[in-house]
Specification:
single chain; 4 strands; globular
């Protein structure tokens, strides 16, 4: 009897260890795009890795310590801008590939582009995801994950690197950072005026 109970316990443990994550990578990407369209930063954070969340929160904390009012204004305006631009995005997700604890999902993203003949810009991107605590998460710090560039327009050919950006912020003079926050607010004001 003990052998049967031990064998059953072992099988249950093995079955629990081999469970698939709650949502496949494509569903995680869908959740991220939905959160973007709703302008819900907290839901977006649920779709990205812990390391990426920690970096974003560290940057926010650093900037808040220098100019709390300015960063709140920027955060509010950027959330609205993100939500507004995301409303005009169409996308399709395909070619999900899983290799152990790593996965990729290809996305075709269609954004408004008044300079284009058809008024649309199509970009293709491959997003990398990793498994954390048996849940798929988008790894924003991986090269190629330029999700936000699709909404903000072409920000250059250099791939964004959150880690490098945070290190530069931490080394920056507080007065210089405060000036950058003010310039950011002015840029957001200018963008708002262009929309009106």
């Amino acid at each position: 009897m003990k052998k049967i109970i031990t064998a059953c316990s072992l099988l249950l443990c093995l079955a629990a260890c081999n469970q698939e994550p709650a949502n496949p990578p494509t569903v995680v990407m869908e959740n991220m795009f939905t959160a973007m369209k709703n302008g819900n930063i907290e839901d977006m954070k649920k779709s990205i890795t812990k390391a990426d969340v920690a970096m974003l929160e560290a940057a926010e904390k650093l900037m808040t310590s220098i100019d709390p009012e300015g960063i709140q204004k920027i955060k509010s305006r950027m959330t609205e801008e993100l939500k507004d631009k995301a409303q005009h995005i169409e996308y399709s997700l395909k070619n999900e590939k899983i290799d152990g604890d790593h996965a990729t999902v290809e996305a075709e993203i269609i954004t408004k582009d008044t300079a284009a003949a058809n008024g649309k810009k199509i970009s293709k991107q491959t997003f990398e995801l990793v498994k954390e605590d048996n849940t798929w998460k988008i790894a924003l710090t991986k090269p190629g994950n330029e999700m936000f560039n699709s909404m903000k327009g072409n920000m250059g050919s250099r791939k964004g690197d959150l880690k490098d950006g945070l290190e530069k912020l931490q080394k920056m003079n507080p007065d210089s950072l405060k000036m950058m926050i003010k310039k950011g607010l002015q840029a957001l004001d200018s963008m708002q005026k262009k929309k009106e």
